[in-house]
Amino acid sequence: MSELGELSAENGETEFSHIPDWYEWERSCVRSEVEAGTYNSGELCVTVDSLPNALGFIRLGEGILVHNMDGFVVRGIDRDGDEFLMEKDVPSLYSYHIEYDYLGKHGDCVDLNTLEDIWYIFPHGTDFSVTKMALATEELYQHYWRQKKDPLS
Description:
The chain is an alpha+beta fold.
C-alpha cells in the first residue's frame, strides 16, 4: 500500500488499486462459495482461551474449529481432560469479532461468545483466514434468510 492508500504490485500494475474494491472482490468470491454450497474452512487445529464473565482469561485447551455452511463448531479437550463444545448455527450469527495478531503475540483470533462466556480461538498454522471467515459469516447469514424467504430460489 502506498502512502496515498493505494494498492500496487511491485511492477506498478494491479487489478485493484482501491482497497474497498479489493475487499468487495474478496466478499464476492466468498459469496460465490456460499451460494454454491461449498464454503468450508475444513478442520483447523486451535487453542481456545475462555473469558467467562470478564473474570480473566483461562486456557480452555486444544481443539478443532470448523466453519461451514452450517455455522461454527469448536470442540476439544480442556486441561482437566473434559470435553468442551460450542456450536453457533448460521441464523445465530450475522457477524462476529475477529482480531489480527492478538496482543502482538497470539496470532489471528476468532471470538465467539455466549451470554456467559467469550471464547478466543486461535487457529494454528497459516492455512486459514479470519477475514474470509468473517465475510463468510455475513454471507451465510444473508444466504440463510434469502433461502428462508424463498425456499425455491
